[in-house]
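Table S2 (continued). Query chain:
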Amino acid sequence: MKKQIKRNLACLMAVITLVVSIQTSAVPVVAEEEQVYSGYGLGSSESPYVIENAGQMNEVRNDLSAYYVLENDIDLSGYEDWTPIGDDENAFTGHFNGNGHIIYNVKIKGSKNFNELNKTVEHLGVFGCIRDAEIQNLGVENASYDVTYYNSGNSYCFLHLGGIAGSIDNSKISQSYFRGNIRGYAGERVYVRSGGIASSVINSSEISNCYTDADTNISGLPVNAMISGIAAWMENSTIDKCYILGSMLGAMKDSPTYLAGFCASGTNGKVNNCVFALSGFKSTSSKVLKNEIGNFITQSENISVVADSPDVSDKTTYTGRGWDFDSIWNMKGSYPILQIFKGADNKFLSHSQSVQDLDMVTYILYNKKTFGGLLYGDSRLKVNGANAIVGDKTYTIDENQISFLDTVAKKYNQKN
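Corresponding output:
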């Protein structure tokens, strides 16, 4: 009897094991979902992803449609060549709130060939291309963009360089600023566009309550070049209550160059209530269209050109154009700063690329002079003010000493 009971129990356990086995095998194996963001937050408007460090800033590209907010200042010096967030095919479509924090030390550099990249368009900036998106309350400081783009193919290509974003489409950038240097060399069959905030601004986009404090130098043999303190190309869009500092140089010999304070070129663009305070504003091209405000814009109201004038530090220059000094701007030192940047100071760039410096660069480029065997553009040759520096040797020029530079260059070239 006991043996029979044991046999029955053994059979029952076998049946149970079989049933459990069948049920288990019927349950699909679900792969663990890949983690998109390492920080906290849900990426929604109510609970945005919170960015606390450079690694998390780099993760923004993993979810281009999410909401983000900076918790701290971010140092991107660990990235030798920053890859912009979003491109023409996969644009950033989310919302980025800098929250009064600053991204420091972003570097974009290198020499690239459109044909080898299999691209016809490149968007460079902290963000590459943004579409149906918004960026606000973001500072970018000590940025260094120094790129060369060639095109060995037969098609024409576009290089967009923007301080904050390469291109913005039906998007907004507000209460933000850019401080740094933008250098770009474009080869043949390349159109180059450079803007202190964004290169291309289209489809009802808006840039408002922003400023740039930058030295821009665009050179090469492009099809044409558009260079501006805010937006290179603007279409059906608006720039409002912005100001620009620094210098701009279009160092092309024959390429058509469009140089302007706020909008280099475009169609149906509006520039209102802005202040121009550049210290250097020059093109070496024999074909240049130059305007302190903008070229081909349909509206420009209440613009003040106050370069090298005490008016640039006069608060009424701005309040007279409707600037809000109650909740958006402060007059701190020589220029307005944005209130939301509580830790910000008034340490604006010294702008070593003065007008005299532009003459120096131009002379080296277009008279093909070398210093220590180095042409301008070689990282070992430095241009600072009126000086060309190679190693521990410094060569100085002013506008009345071109013949001196001729002599120095000839003697130095003979030694090399």
